[in-house]
Amino acid sequence: MSYCRKDGDDLLLDLWVQPGARHSELAGRHGSALKVRVAAPPVEGRANNALVAFLAELFAVPKSHIRLERGRGGRNKRVRVISPAHLPEDIAPT
User: What does the DSSP assignment read for 16-62?
Assistant: First the structure.
């Protein structure tokens, strides 16, 4: 199963998030998920906020177009990107 799939105009991403990294970046695969490092600690929602900001910039959408659908308190997350304006070449939906 792919970590990225289309749902109408939206993308659904299965992510493995590593908080507390030196900088935010895509870091390849982690099992069936896309690994994302975020430069924020997993304290008081800061890592989730950093993830939303990173993905919004990556897909060229407002932060309000990034929705955490599952995994708010863990590393495994499902994220919906509403109508992405840009698709990074590393990410190909199925």
Answer: EEE-S-SS-EEEEEETTEEEEE-SS-SSTTHHHHHHHHHHHHHHT--
Closest residue by Cα to residue 38 from 47, 28, 29: 47
Question: What gap in Å lies between CA 12 and CA 83, rounded to an integer?
Answer: 11
Q: Is pTM, for the whole model, over 0.85?
A: yes
Measured distance CA(84)–CA(56) in Å, rounded: 9
pLDDT of the residue at 72? 93
Q: pLDDT tens digit string along 50-77?
A: 999 999 999 999 999 999 999 999 999 9
Q: What pLDDT, in 10s, does the model give residues 37-54?
A: 999 999 999 999 999 999
Contact 70, 77 (CB under 8 A): yes
